[in-house]
Amino acid sequence: MPKPIATSLKVIFAAAMLVGLGWWVHISYGWASTLSHWQTVSGAALAVGIAMVLVSHLARVWRIHYAYNQQQPTAFKRTLAVSFVHNTVSFLLPMRLGELALPTLSRHQLKIDVKYALATLLLIRLFDAHVLLCLLVFFAGSLWLEDLALVAPITLIVALPIGVKIVQLVGTRFSALSFASPLLQQSSTWITLYVQTLIIWVIKLFALATLAASIGELPINHAWIATIIADASALSPITGFANAGTFELAFTLPLIPLGYAAEPLIKTAVNVHLFIFVINICIGIVGFLLLDSKHSTH
Fold first, then answer.
1. What does the pLDDT look like over 279-296, one tens digit per residue?
2. Which of 26, 105, 130, 153 has the greatest number of C-beta atoms within 10 Å?
3. What is the 3-state secondary structure (H, E, C) of the chain?
């Protein structure tokens, strides 16, 4: 299939998911009824949640700034602008198309080699997936394994150096990964990146899970499970605009086998998703305002 046609089909599919979600919520539950659940959240709890998610975004800037500084010094303000815009664009655009914003903006704003930016992006996405998996197996394990819930995540963390070694070996065969060598040569470097990734997700998911537990009156461990899977669904190559539809589905389905009805879960997911949407739009605006329009690579 020609690339323009494939791209057009992806855009149509993503737009259909966004419109379909909005219409479905409207006719099935009503937006007024769905949004009324915010009355259960105190102003203080909402403020803390917003602050924690914003801190997680700043931690993402810290991670990118640290990774880029392994190749060359970069200005923190410009890195912040690039990271904020990338986070928003990658959230809004479907099918992971927004990921291209990071290497493009890094080249234009920071003079970072595109291949190094791509390799950095790939590595931090691998770390993202690993951290999310560790958190998921811990909270899912807590439902059935109780005191043994830590076994699976500890095993995954212990095996992490083996995974990094595999990435290094693959990098010797594929040039796209070889550019990440400055990030993998020293154990202290990739361990720092991993710890940064852990901090990002623990802070963000704590805020979202607490919010979901309050809105949906869920046990906190159930809220963690739903929130982890829902937020991780953004890493899927098949998503709608702003992860519309995918987020709600990923939030709802894991909890139905635990005896929950679908309707309150969907309403909770929609409200948490709106919370994420508003914050992403706000940091995107800040990022765009901080971009240096006069800066170029020439």
1. 988 888 888 888 887 654
2. 105
3. CCHHHHHHHHHHHHHHHHHHHHHHHHHHCCHHHHHHHHHHCCHHHHHHHHHHHHHHHHHHHHHHHHHHHCCCCCCHHHHHHHHHHHHHHHHHCCCCHHHHHHHHHHHHHHCCCHHHHHHHHHHHHHHHHHHHHHHHHHHHHHHHCHHHHHHHHHHHHHCHHHHHHHHHHHHCCCHHHHCCHHHHCCHHHHHHHHHHHHHHHHHHHHHHHHHHHHHHCCCHHHHHHHHHHHHHHHHCCCCCHHHCCHHHHHHHHHHHHHCCCHHHHHHHHHHHHHHHHHHHHHHHHHHHHHCCCCCCCC
